[in-house]
Every structure is written in C-alpha cells, then in structure tokens.
Amino acid sequence: MKQQKQRTTPFLIQLIVGLSLLVIFFAIAMVCGAANTTLKEAWLAIVSQEKISETITMIHEIRLPREIGAIFIGAALSVAGAIMQGMTRNPLADPGLLGLTAGANCALASAMAILPSLSYFGIMTSCFIGAACGALLVFGISMLQRGGFSPLRLVLAGTAVSMFLYAIADGIGLLFKVSKDVSMWTSGGLVGTSFDQLQIVIPTILVGIFIAIILSRQLTVLSLSEEVAVSLGQHILLIKFLLFMVIIVLVGTSVALVGNLAFIGLMVPHMVRAFVGTDYRHVIPMTAIFGACLMLLADTVGRTINAPYETPLAAIIAILGLPFFLIIVRKGGKSFS
C-alpha cells in the first residue's frame, strides 16, 4: 500500500514541492539571526549592488554567502551519501562514517602545516586526495576478510580509520603549531564563508551533482544487484570509478569549506527514498534539494538558538543524526526506505 501511495504523486509535483520548501527555508535563513532583519532588507541585499544601509551590507557580505554555501554543501554531502548507499547497498553508508571526511580533514591539516601559503583551490585539491585515501583505507580493510562490504564491517572499519586519521591531523597540528588554524577551519560550520570561496565551490559541486544525475540510472541498477547490471551490459568498474570520483569531489569540496559534518549523507537519502522510491533518477535531485533544506535549517537554528552566540553546526547535525543512525541500525536500514 505504501508503494502505491508513493506512485500516486508524480515526481514533477514532488520536485516543485521540494523547490518551494527550499525557497521558504532560504528566506527564513536570510531573515533570522542575531541581527533583526526583514524580508525587504534581505531582498535588497540580494538584488541591489549599492550599500543602502549597514544591515543590508551585513546581509549581503556575511549572511548571503553563508546561506548559499549551506545550500550547496548540504546538497553535496547528501548526494555523496546517496551514491555511497547505492554503490555499497549499505544503509549505514555516509561520508562522515566511512573515512572520507576524516581523510579530507587529515589532508587539509597536512596542507596547512607544510604549505601555509597554499591557495584555497590547493586546499580543496588536498581534501580531494585525502578523501580518496580515507575511503580506500576503509574499503581495503573491509575486504581483508571474507564477506566483503558488510554494513557492520564497513562502519567498524570507517570508525577505526576515522579515529586514526583524526589523531594524525591533531598530531600534525601540534607538531607544526597550527592546531588553532586547523580547528577553526574544520570545526564544522559556515562562519566566514565568502563569495571568493563560493566561486570555486559552486561550479565544482554542480559538476559533481550533474554527473551523478547522468549516472543515476546505472546507479539504480547497481543498487539492486551487480549481476543484473552486468547482464544489462553495464561496465561496472567504469561506473563505480566515476561514481567514486564524484563522491571524492563532493566530499572534498564540502570539507574544504565547512570542515567535519557527519550524518547529513546518512539521513537525507533515507528520508527521500521514503517519498520518491528507490529510483536514483528521482533520489539524486530530491536528495540534493532536501539536503540543502536540512543544512539551511540547521544553520538557522545554530545562529538563533543562543543568539548572539553561535551554536556549532556540527553539534546541531549530530543531535539530529545520532538517533537517526541508531534507528537505522536497529531496523536494518528498512525504517525509512
């Protein structure tokens, strides 16, 4: 009965509803904060190039790039999580749980220590390499025994590798005396997001999501069975390689901008599949939209719950994500999909 109800709502309607929610959450995020603002001031900050008032200037230079960043980072992490869950057929797959985020964090710390004058693009490239190394370590350890990528083995390997890489990052920070800089960068927040950073981040994320949408049909088949994918003539290794590269790009870009954020990529795909089903041609775009909505909501709560002080974004996400994770573990990944 549940599946029949899902099919009664056309995907186009679901997409319109999702985009409408995104606009609403963006408007709320632009208005709410330590400084009292109005929708008119937020609109003028977006469309006007003149510094009409201090409030509008503040919205344009501080709040606007921050919320745009929230949209794209939420979309990137959510899509990365959806791809990982589809590739591994593991309901617990998440970039923050399987070593990618920790690997990117370790590479970022290394880059800041060894090459302190490295450009933002260089830092982002370092995060790409670190995310790839972290993922390869986790998958390599998981394959050492028979049984392959079982959900439990992947999560245990991801936890061990993540703790190891975080320890290395902390050691590098202490050895090179850059702990403060690394902590400020990787604390898991959008503070200090600038338009210069977004000029690099946005095109990179858009390319990654676009490739994911192109490969969504192949991912759907792959998420069901590799044998079926082979029988349909799919080049499994090539598709997995391309999807793996998309994950690295999305996660590396996200860590370079906001640092460590777990559970976004775990929660959103499960929520989306409960409404749109298991066809990744629908899951990928809706995951990007709802991931952006969740990130906007979390950032707004973090800025307003204890204003004028700011609650760490990573803490807000963890409060939502940990119970979600435990429910999925208890239900075997079937509670939301």
Structure description:
The N terminus is likely disordered. The protein starts with a helix and ends in a 6-residue tail after the last helix. With 337 residues, the protein is mainly α. The protein has a single domain, classed as Orthogonal Bundle (ABC transporter involved in vitamin B12 uptake, BtuC). It is built from 15 helices and no strands. The radius of gyration is 20 Å and the shape is globular.
Number of domains: 1
Largest sheet: none
- Low-confidence sequence ranges: 1-6
Please bin the fraction of helical residues. over 70%
Strand segment count: 0
CATH superfamily: ABC transporter involved in vitamin B12 uptake, BtuC
Radius of gyration: 20 Å
CATH topology: ABC transporter involved in vitamin B12 uptake, BtuC
Tell me the fraction of residues in β-strands, as a range: under 5%
Mean pLDDT: 86
